[in-house]
Write a structure and sequence with these properties.
The chain is mostly beta strands and 247 residues long. The protein is built from two helices and 22 strands. A hairpin with a 4-residue loop joins β14 and β15. The protein starts with a strand and ends with a strand.
């Protein structure tokens, strides 16, 4: 028996419902992608990616009589309502990660057996760690190398936050492991903050978009290896924030 949590609600506790078998996606199909970068006219991002993951989960409602079954169906309809967007799907045999999922098809319940199939499509092709990692590094000299191992089995697009303790012009953040390098052509004064959000393809200076000063590629973290970052023209604190991801 596999317990299923959807939108933070355990279906076993909420409506005595569980899943035991069904289609579990191993790997989504690879695709090419090409997208424009927000706030930067003429800037593009391209590469390889994956199709969305899909789950087909046969479920069983434990019930005592027809009235009990109808009551539990009503409870479950509220849980599975994804009109407002994707919800977290967690399966108890892999409870270290979640998938952002929503309904892809109608749910039809067998009124004699209490069985139904939950067909879900995910916002991303990856399982996402339930643990948010925030890793801080002191940058006392330029250049300086720091390392970070995100775990997981697929690359991570981190948020990198740089808070200056000294004047820092033309900051260079280079991931020697992945070969990705970003250069920001502005200058950070003491106490000022630069945020590199690789997932959103966005760099902000003091909370405002600063993509016009950016060249190169926003760096990722390669999975389950030490990523070697060379930081140039900056002194202060560097913080990686991310969740490990799984194929």
């Amino acid at each position: 028996m596999i317990e299923l949590s959807f939108g933070g609600v355990s279906l076993l506790d909420y409506a005595d419902t569980y899943t035991q078998k069904g289609s579990r996606p191993m790997l989504a199909s690879p695709i090419d992608y090409f997208a424009s970068i927000p706030t930067r006219d003429g800037g593009y991002h391209w590469g390889k990616y994956y199709e969305k993951k899909r789950f087909s989960l046969p479920c069983v409602i434990n019930f005592t009589d027809r009235d009990d079954l109808i009551t539990k169906i009503q409870l479950l309809s509220g849980v599975f309502d994804t009109k407002g967007g994707f919800k977290q799907l967690i399966l108890s045999d892999q409870d270290d990660r979640y998938y952002l999922a929503k309904l892809e098809q109608n749910i039809d319940v067998d009124m004699e057996l209490g069985t139904f199939t939950l067909n879900l499509v995910c916002a991303t092709p990856f399982g996402i760690s339930t643990t948010l990692t925030s890793s801080s590094h002191a940058i006392a000299a330029s250049p300086q190398t720091v390392t970070e191992n995100p775990g997981g089995s697929v690359f991570v697009e981190p948020v990198i936050t740089l808070t200056a303790t000294g004047a820092s012009p033309v900051i260079i953040v280079n991931n020697a492991t992945s070969g990705e390098q970003l250069t920001w052509g502005g200058t950070l004064a003491i106490g000022e903050v630069l945020v590199i959000n690789s997932e959103l393809w966005l760099v902000t200076y003091q909370g405002n978009p600063s993509m016009a000063n950016v060249s190169g590629r926003l760096p990722s973290l390669q999975p389950s290896v030490l990523n070697s970052f060379n930081i140039s023209n900056f002194t202060g604190t560097l913080v990686f924030t991310y969740r490990a991801r799984y194929l």
